[in-house]
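Give me the fold.
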Amino acid sequence: MGKILVHICCAPDALYFLKRLREDFPTEKIVGYFYDPNIHPYEEYRLRYVETERACKELGIDLIEGDYELEEWMERVKGLEEEPERGERCSVCFDIRLERSAKVAKGIGCESFTTTLLMSPKKKFHQLKESGEKVARSYGIKFLALDYRKGGGTQEMFKLSREKEFYQQDYCGCVHALFQQKGEKALFDLVSLGGRRPGTKEERLFIKEVRIFAQELSLQVREYEFPFLNWVPLQGGVWIGKEVVPSLPVPFSRSVKGRLRAEVSEAVGDTLYLSKGFVRLVLVDELADTPLEEASFLSCPTFLVPRSFGERLLQNRIEVRLSVEFTDATSSILVIGSQDAKHILGIPADTLQDGRGVRASWVKEFLSHREEELRKGELAVVLL
């Protein structure tokens, strides 16, 4: 039995490609190799890797994870930052990944290698073929330039990927393509706001890791994507003079234009109303973010502040700053067990602004302890 090494870029491209490869080479052992140092940021890399791991496990294919050598990759493509998609930067990127793939293939005794990049409708087939054959000659092995896109292959790939509920990335992978494709909105992919905020890669990775664990227990799983209006706090705070007042912005507060300076015009219960900008300060005994129990259609800039600052806030001029973004985002709900179960337990997949939330290890332990109930339909767990 011979061996074929398959360089894998992502799960959506991989599943159909690997199924076709196995059909065409039934006597060959197939080994997957995930080497993609171009993918940025690291959270995106991990997300694509865990989904690739899920695809390979489903097909019973061994998977090797290569090193994440981002700095070396950035150095190799220096000067090509402005190249368009399918341009010279992509050629260099293919050379980097396929050269390492050929080296690994040779090292583990493979007679040939290929890449799932050949499935991507965003890549030039001849560009990949040229790169693969070039590095193959250097290592004395064969590059399989397989065009599985033809004959409805691309459509079948998308169909299969949707059925398996794989994460669908919305850009090629590298930081340069990210900015070319998304412009200023690319910053939301690159900046971590701490914890697992709704719609972030961290939240998606949490959901996918729990899903893989549940599937390893042979539990029923189903994932539902949904769009929502996301609220992203970028910067802000409350000051008395130069002193910072500890504070937390309330979700869906709108931005404050510039630096707003005002006095308290009215105090009603625990709420202080400033004289400008619809700003509200809510006095609390303990400064801590709390789950959003219900949505509000009001977007007044509102901060939680410690009650101990109440008198000083009433007596002094206050400065408030707040910059937020409202963006269209996508998240998902993961249902583990039967949707008709007697009892359904909801667990938040996201965390609060201060990073507090449920750990993946706790969820996995819970699933292990309640496995029988989940299997019998007595209990279902929903990651919300």
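Residues 88-107 form the longest helix (20 residues).
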